[in-house]
Known about the structure:
Elements: H1 2-19, E1 27-28, E2 31-32, H2 81-84, E3 92-96, E4 101-109, E5 113-119, E6 124-130, E7 134-139
Antiparallel strand pairs: 1-2, 3-4, 3-7, 4-5, 5-6
Amino acid sequence: MYNQTVYSYINYDQQLERQFPSLPVPSFPGQSGLPGLPGPEFAGPSGFPGLPGSQIPQAPTAPPPPFIPQQAVASPFAVDPGAIRLCLFRNTFIWLSNGERFWFYPIFVGPRSVAGFRWNGISWMIFGVDTRRIISFTCY
């Protein structure tokens, strides 16, 4: 499993370098690539996950809505990636199994993860989470 993950990161790095030659890709001791990002098998036509053409993902330019929505009935099971895919590029409020809750702006949904930008109260920060940790979400 570990070797397969490292192999995916290496392939993903090579794909990013071909698509975005000026994009810096950091390396970490003992591994290559960006931890938490999916391998190339989940990339869109551009080589960057889920984005058409040669777009580079940008954080939203405005803050999320100024309210906290009412939580829907929480499920003890993992969130289906197909369901959260409907929230791509929309303000989404997320409740995690550890009690955290926050505004999120998803830009990529993989088989078991979702990546995008999380609102920290001041600005948007890049963020990714395993869908098995999400107990509920709602998008606007």
